[in-house]
């Protein structure tokens, strides 16, 4: 399957942004950096993420629906233990009824893979010895300008693992390239770790051992793998990756406030669940949030626990004297009952 359409699309967006920044005076070189090309890559990320934002919102809603269905899923697993075929059928029916899609959680990531591959291929072509300068809508002038574009004197097409021959063709210094690329790889690893850690800290670690292992892989395995694979990425691609991670951090922070996970609703710092906890007299909120801090030692929980025993302090039926009977153990200082006259 040809990926030319992806290369054309990525090139078109990249070149439009570069032309825009050049038109406002950013086409020069400052601090060893061609900012029009660097900013073009940054705003390529912004463009793609804005286009994918509606898909991302659907992903979050689907994840929340899946979290809400976990009790029902566990019940089905217990009911059909050992009968995998029936379990799969019942779970698919449950997802269909509740309009939850397990695959939606991975969709935005899969849609960004072609963009990454397209930019990787486009930047890898930037080589003075390449004679096919007009592929994918480029002009020869744009191609030559991008070939010599750099970040702090490190060409955007160079990478940490570039050979001496490749660096010579780009007119780059080996030490400069390795320092700039090495720092960017470390930033890429750090921001990748931060995006995974942000989500796990907010949603909590999974109880299922397999899901917890996947979380650990996402948190530690992927950033460590970038230490090796990052040396193969052109500097321009690493700029794309770092920018994408920073955008993800900001977007996740917004989403976690707009669509908080179910288990966040009962945390001690939240004021929202306090009112339901005070009003609740039974298990009205139990299905949504089994752990209610207000009921187990919160401020409202203690007040309520002290108020309830005060209701049956005096039982008037048991203590009231029978008609015509003398009072038993009258209280000290109480006026004696008057004797009936005559």
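^ structure tokens above, recovered residues below v
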């Amino acid at each position: 399957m040809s990926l030319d359409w992806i290369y054309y699309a990525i090139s078109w967006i990249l070149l439009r942004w570069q032309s825009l920044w050049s038109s406002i005076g950013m086409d020069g070189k400052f601090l060893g950096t061609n900012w029009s090309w660097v900013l073009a890559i940054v705003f390529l990320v912004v463009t793609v993420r804005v286009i994918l934002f509606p898909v991302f919102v659907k992903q979050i809603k689907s994840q929340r629906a899946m979290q809400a269905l976990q009790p029902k899923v566990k019940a089905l697993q217990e009911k059909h233990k050992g009968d995998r075929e029936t379990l799969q059928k019942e779970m698919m029916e449950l997802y269909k009824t509740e309009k939850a899609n397990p695959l939606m959680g991975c969709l935005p990531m899969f849609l960004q893979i072609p963009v990454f591959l397209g930019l990787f291929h486009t930047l890898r072509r930037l080589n003075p010895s390449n004679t096919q300068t007009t592929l994918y809508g480029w002009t020869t002038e744009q191609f030559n300008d991008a070939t010599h574009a750099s970040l702090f004197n490190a060409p955007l097409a160079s990478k940490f693992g570039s050979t001496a021959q490749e660096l010579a063709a780009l007119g780059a210094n080996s030490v400069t390239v390795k320092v700039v690329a090495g720092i960017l790889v470390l930033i890429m690893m750090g921001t990748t770790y931060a995006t995974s850690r942000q989500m796990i800290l907010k949603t909590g670690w999974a109880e299922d051992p397999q899901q917890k292992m996947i979380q650990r892989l996402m948190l530690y395995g992927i950033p460590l793998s970038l230490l090796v694979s990052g040396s193969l990425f052109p500097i321009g691609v690493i700029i794309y990756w770092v920018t994408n991670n920073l955008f993800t951090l900001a977007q996740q922070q917004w989403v976690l406030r707009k669509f908080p996970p179910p288990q966040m609703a009962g945390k001690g710092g939240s004021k929202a669940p306090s009112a339901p906890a005070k009003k609740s007299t039974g298990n009205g909120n139990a299905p949504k949030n089994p752990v209610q801090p207000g009921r187990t030692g919160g401020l409202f929980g203690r007040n309520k626990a002290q108020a309830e025993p005060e209701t049956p302090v005096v039982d008037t039926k048991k203590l009231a004297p029978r008609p015509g009977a003398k009072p038993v153990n009258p209280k000290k200082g109480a006026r004696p009952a008057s004797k009936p006259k005559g």
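The chain has 13 helices and four strands.
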